[in-house]
Structure formats: C-alpha cells, structure tokens
Design goal:
Elements (H helix, E strand, L loop, with lengths): L5 E6 L3 H13 L4 E7 L13 E2 L2 H5 L6 E4 L4 H13 L4 E3 L2 H18 L3 E2 L2 H4 L4 H7 L6 E7 L2 H13 L3 H10 L8 H4 L2 H15 L9 E2 L7 H9 L2 E12 L3 E12 L11 E8 L3 E8 L3 H16 L16 E2 L4 E8 L2 H6 L4 E7 L4 E8 H6 L1 H6 L3 E4 L4
C-alpha cells in the first residue's frame, strides 16, 4: 500500500487547471491534494475556495509542497517554473507543449542531473496516453511511423464541414463559440499545436529531437469550398495530420499538413474534438489509439494520471535516445499532393518533381503531382500568405 502523499503547488487555473481540481474533488483522493494555486490575476472572481497566490516564490518556499503541476499558456513562464522545480528536486507535471517542443533536450538533461521526474503525457494528445505507450510498449526498433490527428479544434471544424456541410467560416465560428478554438485560432488551424505535439512524440518514438523551424508545417486556414468539393468528389476528407516516419537508410521524415484521407483509414472516422493516433511497426502492422484531445476534464484526467504515476516514482527513461544508431532527419523525400492555386505565379512558386493531373476552369485551378518536403519547406511562408491550398494525397 502506497502511503506517500503529494502536496501540489499548481500553476494556472484555466480550463485544464479547473478540470484537474474538479476531478480530484470528485474522486476524493487521500494521497493527492492541491495545497496552493498560483495565478496571474489573484483578484479574478472564482467560485473555488482555495489558497490562491500570484507569487511563485510562495509555492516554491512552502516546505509542505512536494510536487509541482504547471498548466499555464505562457511558454517562457512555464519553462522557468519547470526548470526551477527540477533544480529544487521537486517532481513536476507540465501541459505546455510549446515549451516542451523548444526545451525538451535541456529538460531531459536536468532530469538526469537532479534525478527528478518531469512527466507530460497530457501535453501530447489530451486523454490518449500516447507517450507512456511509446515509452513502455514500443521501446524497440520495430516502430516505423506515428501519424494522426493531434489537434481537437481543427478536427472539430473539419468534422462540421464534411458531416454537416458547414462553410469553413461558420465551422470556425462555432468552434470559437463552444470554446474549442481561441479568438485567435492560428495555433490550432495553422498546425502549430500539432507541430509541438509531434516533436514531443518523436523524441519518445525515435529518440531524435528536431527543432520546430526544420519541419514543414501547414494548416487548414487557406482551405475553401473548391477544396472541400474536390475531397467530396474523391470520397475523401481533409484531416490535419502530424506524421513522423522512418524511411530507407534509417532516415526520419516529419510534417504537419492536411491530408486527403480515404474511407479505409482509421482516422477518417475520427470526429469532432477527438484525436486519433496510428502507430505502425514492422511486424505488428498498425495499432490505433483514440480519445478526447481537448477539454478540461479529459486533459485534467491525463494530468492526474501523470501525478499518480509519480506516487510510484515513475520516470520517462528515454530509451530510444540511448540507441547508438539514432535516425537522421531528412526532408529529401517526395510524395503526391493536391495543390489548388490562383494564378501562374502561384503554380511557379512550387517546383514539382512531376505533375500527373492538371485542372483549369474559370473559377478553380489545381494540379496533382509529386513534390519534396524540402521544396515545401522552402516555400512554406509563401504558401501561407497566398490564396493557395496544399494537401498530401496518398494513393490509398
């Protein structure tokens, strides 16, 4: 029987912090307690009766607090909190995927230096325990790829478009009204949230850290009715996909972009704010993980899972990073895409290896062809700011 008790210093009391607080209250845990909560605005009206502070020092100087949970939006502040916790040998759980995607290598070193755990399963896919599964079950060289829907907000929008025939602007507004998307939704719909999660997943899946700037990232904000019509005619759906795959010669490719998904694929039917992750290996083929990727209670429950793991001194071992033959990241890989454009200058922007299909009408122009990741990465800023749309178009 575990008699250890965690007295938590909690940073942040937004959607996930509230969710964690309510989940703990609901289960009436005897060995996990939130002792103090640090927030930005201590004068904000709250229905919760708790010990609030706006001074981080009050958390770190409290001798009763033996565990830190960081659930704030500010990546720089989150980094300071997590680093300070590790250096004080206080185990810490973090939900800030942007901070982790920037600083994970340094934080891995700090964990080893101070022999203190940092857990962050909730940062990757909400309620789906993808990181712990990659750590414990897929801790060998059989793994070949991880791909999936890593952002619930963009998936909610796409579900409304394809299931209820909503326009893109109407679906985005509904997502904002329901709290699935922020007033500035760029983090979700332009692929950045998925990118940060993909980087974290790749560290655990293949042992390799790749900086955000090196990875082609493109979202759904440029999608229009012509693109939706094309997908529907082909009996496919657009899904915003994060993808990491080992290819020939122990090389690793990564991308975040829309893909035209056929009915036969698991993630075709992942709807609303749910996430879906497909893990593929050499001998076990494909395995599928599915769950809510957003919301206070699902993510708060995932944070609680990390907290309770620490009751039993669980730590990530980063086994793949100890491999003598780490894969090499590359953008030297070509694949088929759909590219809708406006004028000849847009078409000339992208240097295709080959074009197999071209369509031109008074209102719509597109090509189907092969292009390399390196080429897309070269022009990604231009792609975002022009009236064009590009998506991977797998043959199956």
């Amino acid at each position: 029987m575990n008699t250890k008790k965690l007295q938590i210093g909690l940073f942040g009391f937004g959607t996930v912090g509230n969710g964690l607080y309510d989940v703990l209250k609901r289960i009436e845990s005897s060995n996990v307690e939130i002792r103090r909560i640090c927030v930005r605005d201590i004068n904000k009206p709250r229905t919760v009766k708790a010990l609030f502070t706006d001074n981080a020092d009050e958390i770190f100087s409290d001798p009763e607090i033996n565990f830190i949970v960081e659930l704030i939006d500010d990546a720089d502040a989150a980094y300071d909190i997590v680093k300070r916790a590790l250096m004080k040998r206080l185990p810490v759980v973090s939900g800030n995927k942007k901070m982790l995607a920037r600083h994970i290598e340094e934080l891995i070193d700090l964990q080893r230096q101070y022999n203190t755990a940092l857990l962050y399963d909730a940062s990757a896919c909400g309620s789906i325990p993808v990181i712990r599964n990659l750590e414990e079950y897929y801790d060998n060289d059989l793994l070949t790829s991880v791909k999936g829907i890593l952002n619930g907000s963009s998936n909610f929008i796409l579900s409304k478009i394809f299931n209820e025939k909503m326009s893109y602007p109407a679906a985005l507004k509904l997502a904002q009204d329901l709290g699935f998307a922020e007033s500035n939704p760029s983090l979700d719909i332009d692929g950045w949230d998925s990118l940060f999660k993909l980087i974290i997943i790749t560290v655990h899946a293949f042992g390799l850290y790749v900086a955000p700037e090196q990875i082609f990232t493109y979202g759904i904000s440029n999608m229009n009715d012509d693109d939706i019509r094309f997908a529907t005619e082909k009996e496919r759906r657009f899904k915003l996909i994060g993808h990491v795959e080992k290819i020939d010669g122990n090389r690793l490719i990564m991308s975040v972009m829309p893909q035209l998904i056929s009915r036969e694929k698991y993630i075709y039917s992942v709807e609303d704010e749910f996430n879906g992750v497909v893990i593929k290996g050499l001998f076990y083929d494909k395995q599928f993980m599915f769950g809510r990727g957003a919301g206070g209670y699902p993510t708060g429950s995932a944070v609680l899972s990390d907290i309770t793991a620490c009751l039993y001194n669980y730590k990530y071992e980063y086994k793949k990073r100890n491999d003598s033959q780490l894969p090499t990241y590359t953008t030297d890989h070509s694949f088929r895409v759909y590219y809708r454009y406006t004028d000849a200058e847009d078409l000339a922007l992208v240097h295709f290896d080959s074009i197999s299909e071209s369509y031109i009408s008074d209102t719509n122009k597109y090509v189907i062809g092969y292009v390399s990741l390196s080429e897309l990465h070269r022009v990604q800023e231009e792609l975002r700011h022009r009236n064009v749309f590009i998506a991977a178009y797998p043959r199956d």
